[in-house]
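Fold it.
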Amino acid sequence: MKDDRLYLHHILERCHRITRFIEPGREAFMASEEMQDAVFATSK
C-alpha cells in the first residue's frame, strides 16, 4: 500500500506541474515548442 501511495503522489505532483505549464492557455501552449517539450517530459 505504501508504494501505491508514493506512486499516486508522484502522479498528482506531475499533474500539478503540467497544469502550471498549460495555464497561459491553448494558444500559448501550441505556439511554444519549449512548453510542449516541458509538458511531455514532465508526463513521463
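The chain is about 85% helix and 0% strand.
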